[in-house]
Amino acid sequence: MTHATSHALSCAFEQILARHCGCEEPLSEAVPARLADGVKKIADIYTGGGEPCTAFKDPALRTAYAAYYLPCNAIKLFPILAELERCRPLLGRGGRLRVLDLGCGPGTLIVGLLDFCLQQCRQAPLAFDITAIDRDSGNCRSARELIQSYCAAAPGAPSVASLHILTGDVHGLAMPGSAAGFDLILAGNLINELEAGRIADCARRIAALLKPDGMLVLLEPGTLPSFKSLLLFRDELPRHAMRLLAPCMQPGTCPLRHSPDAWCHEKLFWSPPGLVRLIDERTGFSKHKGVKFSYLVASRNAPPAGAGAGADHWRVVSYVIRNKGEERLYVCNGRERRLLRRLVRIRSQASADFSDAGRGDTVIVSGAEPRTDFFDIGSDAVFRKIS
Ligand SMILES: C[S@@+](CC[C@H](N)C(=O)[O-])C[C@H]1O[C@@H](n2cnc3c(N)ncnc32)[C@H](O)[C@@H]1O
After folding, report:
1. Predicted TM-score of the model (pTM)
2. In this predicted structure, which of 43-52, 152-161, 241-250 has the lowest mean pLDDT?
3. Closest ligand 1 atom to the C-alpha of 69?
4. What DSSP letter does each residue of 241-300 carry, written as one string?
């Protein structure tokens, strides 16, 4: 996944969402001010330890969520799906796919998925059978309206052959005996809302719902507490014969498992919709500059350890830290995290990618020399981006 490319939702998505939120042009000053007020209240609920479900009980807050957090979360799917499509095409194969979205909110990840396909999977005709579930009936209504509006108004949108939006609890998920399972299961910003003691149960239910070659994508806010929740889920994967595909390149214990202050997260730079900018201007928030998130992609039939990404495959997990005469960055493969250093006087083409590497890039690293507290990328070492 590279985050250097700027991702954007389609113009159709922006227009449909604006209409859905009652923000059609010409926009009076009162509309962004009202939405900004709602966004601040939602942020206060989430950061102040309030009960998250209160954010969705009030229709005004639900609209503010859809105008602001929905596009900020939907776009996070893009680099993840783009990397998946390069390595293990699912959407690009075309055909009919069964998709399940858990904790769907106002339809965030389903519309994100449709918009990704609209923009990037035009070569093979796709049809989706969609099931989405949320415990909040207002969110379910809103999700249905948005998905239907998107399908009706976005020219070239993939076809939605069936749409089932269910009000219910993910802890009640069960696979009917005869059902075939899902090709793709999504859950956005859900795991951190579950009680820690119930995450294992959720993992078990999800694994039972996935087709043998199905894919699971979990997205979480890029915060330390939500990363810890994601780790609890990650621990459950081997119990259900599920294997990590990303961001980790190798199975093993996460090196940040016990870290009190570092956590694995990405920052995606994007072209935000106008409404997000207007709300940022009024709240002082900065989602227009980039959105943080943690994520996990797993599959039932990923290659076994060692047969997938080579031992020299790593993911960049920091910015390039520039000091006098040298640059440093962290890479991780899922079980080991390394600090790499490259002196700026090194001119070798084999490691020329070092200077402009970005969080999320996958890279091949070989020949790095171990030093006391870092690995040195000398003139003979290789540091090459593969995405
Ligand atoms: C932060 S919102 C995320 C919405 C959407 N997935 C997104 O990424 O924008 C979390 C959603 O999960 C739902 N949720 C939380 N716990 C749930 C549970 N146990 N069962 C079903 N839905 C749940 C909430 O109602 C809410 O809509």
Report:
1. 0.94
2. 43-52
3. 9
4. T-EEEES-SS-S--TTTT-SS----EEE-B---HHHHHHHHHH---GGG-EEEEEEEEES
